[in-house]
Amino acid sequence: MKEHEIIDKLREYFEENYELMRLEGGHALTEDVKQLALTQVLYYYNKMRDVANKVTDTEVKLTLPEQITQKGRNFTIEGIVDIVRDDDETWMYDIKTHDTDYIKANKDLYGRQLNVYAHIWQKLRGQPLDKTAVISTAYPAGLKRAHLLNDPFQIQYELSKWEPLVDLDFDQEKVEEIIADFAETVDCIEDKKFKPAPVEVLKENLAGSKSKFGQRICRECDARFSCSSYREYVLGKGKGSRGNFRKYFDDFGSDTAKEEWANANLSARDINTINPE
Ligand code: SF4
User: Fold this and answer.
1) Ligand 1 within 6 A of 105 CB?
2) Which residue has its alpha carbon closest to ligand 1 atom 4?
3) What DSSP letter does each residue of the chain carry, written as one string?
4) Most buried of 8, 28, 123, 247, CB within 10 angstroms?
5) Can you give the pLDDT of all 277 residues of the chain as single tens digits?
6) Co-location of 100 and 77 in the same domain
7) Tally of domains within the chain
8) Whose Cα sits closest to atom 8 in ligand 1?
């Protein structure tokens, strides 16, 4: 397929996926946010074209059934990966929406999951594996800024320093320990033990990020209004607890999320006004 045909196909798939997600999730995007999302896809393709062309198996479902927890509960581990095979090596890729810096700073966390997938691939499927890696699909802030400024030189510079692919070592000796951790989590969920992270953790900067846990993770968490740690984090922050109290109950998400929501609903209202049923 020629390059321009691939780009056309990407645009077509993007539209189809967007419509599907809009109908399933009920969330609409404003036209400018949607176009920005499309540029993320196109830059990502530009950067990962070589890997994309070499992928031999996409969305391979890996399953590790019949696992038993300490309390005798049965569970299954499942994951989806991409595989690249050439004459010399086989690579396994796990695709994440998190940014590269965060993945690099938390290699152990991401490696644990890939270790289990590598185990399933090699031991249960009997397939060879040489390397594992995570691919970050997050839009780098610098590239997004350069795109919005329409600065071609800065775009080229940002593209050249973007490294979406993060190599991770896999260590099969740790697999049993990792599966035991999964099992412990299953028992906690089934026993309804949902203890939030302590407030001290919410105040700490996340590894590989300048944002605090309470800002970056909790602001996106639907359980935050019933979470004692988040309440303490917001209400206990700084002076003027009355102001914080109000802020806590008026928190409808980040400024960007609120703006997108408002704009999308305004657009929907305009359409309804023009075309009343
Ligand atoms: S708000 Fe959500 S993510 Fe944050 S500590 Fe509470 S439960 Fe965990």
Assistant:
1) no
2) 218
3) --HHHHHHHHHHHHHHHHHHHHHHH-----HHHHHHHHHHHHHHHHHHHHHHHHEEEEEEEEEEEEEE-TT--EEEEEEEEEEEE-SS-EEEEEEESS-HHHHHHTHHHHHHHHHHHHHIIIIIS-----EEEEEE----HHHHHHHHHT-HHHHHHHHHH---EEEE---GGGHHHHHHHHHHHHHHHHTT--PPPPHHHHHSBPTT-SSBHHHHTGGG-TTGGG-HHHHHHHHTSSS-HHHHHHHHHT--S-HHHHHHHHHHHHHHHHHHHHS--
4) 28
5) 788 899 999 999 999 999 998 888 777 788 888 999 999 999 999 998 888 877 888 888 999 999 999 999 999 999 888 888 877 889 999 888 888 988 998 888 888 888 999 999 988 888 889 999 999 999 998 999 999 999 999 999 999 999 999 999 888 788 889 999 999 999 999 999 888 999 999 999 888 778 889 888 888 888 888 899 998 888 875 554 555 666 666 665 655 555 555 655 555 555 444 444 4
6) yes
7) 2
8) 196
